[in-house]
Amino acid sequence: MAAVIEVDHLTKRYGPKLAVDDVSFVVRPGSVTGFLGPNGAGKSTTMRMIMGLDRPTSGSATVNGRPYQTFRDPLRQVGALLEAKAVHTGRSAYAHLLSLAATHGIPKARVHEVIEMTGLESVARKRVGGFSLGMGQRLGIAAALIGDPRTLILDEPVNGLDPDGVVWVRQLARRMAAEGRTVFLSSHLMSEMAQTADRVVVLGRGRVLADAPISEFVAGPEGGGARVVVRTPAPDQLFAAIGQAATAVTPRDDGSFLVVGPDAPSIGAVAARAGVVLHELTPMGASLEEAYMALTRDDVEYRSEGAR
């Protein structure tokens, strides 16, 4: 059985609040799937239901073809970081990992291996209660890796990490996926997700808003179409000729315009037919953050006044 996460019509209610609303998606091995959404979108609740920590109101979630709670060797099947602080603060990092390994007959050599992998050598014998947020995250990831699992589920793994740690998590996720494992992770750092994930699942108010490869998500309707910088001495004539094909035309400080919608060749062809001189025609790649913000702007539960 391939290491696959399958979420099928998953729904979760907390009293009158519908936290997860009929969510379905599949996370497949060999690539990194990013899990995105505003605060309150239902991401953590969905991850908890996948891990059997919350019971669905309806629907199901399976990992490697089975509900997580039915595994006799869960650490070998799924490595998860959901709450990095869920560790006895009086224990050392080494003792914590050793106790986890003992439950599955995992040798001590693996404990030393994950300590080295996660950069915990200098604090391995220190009490977890004195750990920084970043060190706590590293320990949580070490615990997720202890069983050499086929599936990795990480909720905000770069939270509290310094830039080197963020890069390390990215490289870890990419390496695990390249080994044919299933990697499912959430993050609020769009720039990092753009460099890490191959595919994204986006939630908003408990519903799936998008489930697509990053390239399609950014280039598709959520990304607003192509983005082209145009400079011309006759902007009124050009944009009248382009018409409704341009979904947005924004003046820039340098006198050029950012045109969203038609790609550069299409704009060039329109300009040629209209006899408009172009001084610049530069395609610009849309970003994951722009596509995400465009898609979720109506699904943010908690919005600051400046963002309205």
Give a summary of the structure in a few sentences.
The chain is of the alpha/beta class.
Give a written overview of the molecule.
- The chain has 308 residues and is an alpha/beta fold.
- The protein contains eleven helices and 13 strands.
- It has helices at 43-50, 74-77, 93-103, 108-117, 133-145, 163-178, 190-196, 214-219, 235-242, 264-274, 288-296, and strands at 5-14, 17-27, 32-36, 58-63, 78-81, 151-155, 182-186, 199-204, 207-213, 226-231, 248-251, 257-261, 280-284.
- The termini are far apart.
- The model is unreliable at 302-308 (pLDDT under 50).
Terminal-residue CA separation:
47 Å
Which structural class should the secondary elements be placed in?
alpha/beta
Radius of gyration: 23 Å
Please provide the ordered H/E string of secondary-structure elements: EEEHEHEHHHEHEHEEHEHEEHEH
Strand-residue proportion: 25-35%
Strand order, sheet with most strands: 5-6-7-3-8-9
Helix content: 25-40%
Largest sheet: 6 strands, mixed
Given as residue ranges, the uncertain stretches (5+ residues, pLDDT < 50) are 302-308
Number of DSSP E strands: 13
Average pLDDT reading: 89
Quaternary structure annotation: single chain
Task: Compute the number of helices.
Answer: 11
Q: Give the CA-based shape.
A: elongated
What are the main properties of this structure?
single chain, 11 helices, four-stranded antiparallel sheet, 26% strand, six-stranded mixed sheet, alpha/beta, disordered C terminus, 308 residues
SSE map:
Elements: E1 5-14, E2 17-27, E3 32-36, H1 43-50, E4 58-63, H2 74-77, E5 78-81, H3 93-103, H4 108-117, H5 133-145, E6 151-155, H6 163-178, E7 182-186, H7 190-196, E8 199-204, E9 207-213, H8 214-219, E10 226-231, H9 235-242, E11 248-251, E12 257-261, H10 264-274, E13 280-284, H11 288-296
Parallel strand pairs: 3-7, 3-8, 5-6, 6-7
Antiparallel strand pairs: 1-2, 1-4, 8-9, 10-12, 10-13, 11-12
